[in-house]
TrEMBL record:
<feature type="compositionally biased region" description="Polar residues">
    <location>
        <begin position="35"/>
        <end position="46"/>
    </location>
</feature>
<feature type="domain" description="DUF5610">
    <location>
        <begin position="66"/>
        <end position="185"/>
    </location>
</feature>
<protein>
    <submittedName>
        <fullName>DUF5610 domain-containing protein</fullName>
    </submittedName>
</protein>
<dbReference type="InterPro" id="IPR041651">
    <property type="entry name" value="DUF5610"/>
</dbReference>
<feature type="compositionally biased region" description="Basic and acidic residues">
    <location>
        <begin position="24"/>
        <end position="34"/>
    </location>
</feature>
<feature type="compositionally biased region" description="Polar residues">
    <location>
        <begin position="1"/>
        <end position="23"/>
    </location>
</feature>
<dbReference type="Pfam" id="PF18433">
    <property type="entry name" value="DUF5610"/>
</dbReference>
<feature type="region of interest" description="Disordered">
    <location>
        <begin position="1"/>
        <end position="46"/>
    </location>
</feature>
């Protein structure tokens, strides 16, 4: 039985099929290498981020201070966005302060002071409103802004996987102190308004 000789077109066809198979294999290998490289990069980035987070927040009090700075900045930025930046106490104004500067008491005090700094302006803008309504409406706006800022700050800290232990305790204590200070402001203002109305 005679085998027919291979023609030029058959050789070209075989070469094309082989070439396509090699290209497909090359592409498959490239995809695998890219996937491995991408996984390696993601893992390296995650480790790097973990090291950065550890360096920022893993130093006891210093880490707590940085977390409180985030909390303060987020809350004040929402208040400023709502009411304007004219009276704002911004992070650049608070650099290099005393050791207890970022304690819950001091942080809450600065947040409330910054927020209440807008009250006179708010009163002037709403002069047709009785004072008790001014106080209630103002506190409603401020409280919503504080809640939003607190939520954003805790989301950032939680995303960094540091919202636990003393950082969480300090944040929650700060939020509670803010509520107490706003309640005291409300009582002082409405108490004064009631006494003036009785005279």
């Amino acid at each position: 039985m005679a085998v027919s000789p291979i023609t030029g077109s058959q050789t070209a066809l075989t070469a094309r099929v082989d070439s396509q198979q090699v290209k497909a294999n090359d592409k498959s290998e490239q995809k695998e290498q890219q996937a491995e490289f991408s996984a390696s990069r993601t893992e390296m980035k995650a480790r790097s981020n973990q090291n950065i987070v550890q360096a920022m927040f893993g130093n006891g009090k210093q880490g707590d201070d940085k977390a409180m700075n985030i909390l303060y900045s987020e809350i004040m930025s929402t208040i400023n966005a709502e009411l304007g930046k004219e009276h704002a106490i911004t992070p650049d104004k608070v650099a290099g302060q005393a050791d207890d500067y970022w304690s819950p008491e001091n942080t809450a005090g600065r947040i409330v002071e910054g927020a209440l700094g807008f009250f006179d302006t708010f009163q002037r803008q709403n002069s047709n409103m009785p004072e008790d309504e001014q106080v209630e409406k103002f506190l409603s706006i401020i409280t919503k802004s504080i809640d939003k800022g607190y939520g954003e700050a805790t989301k950032v800290l939680d995303g960094l996987k540091v919202f636990d232990g003393s950082i969480k305790d300090n944040a929650e204590a700060t939020r509670s102190l803010i509520d107490d200070k706003l309640a005291a402001f409300r009582e002082a203002k409405l108490g004064t308004a009631t006494q003036e109305g009785a005279e």
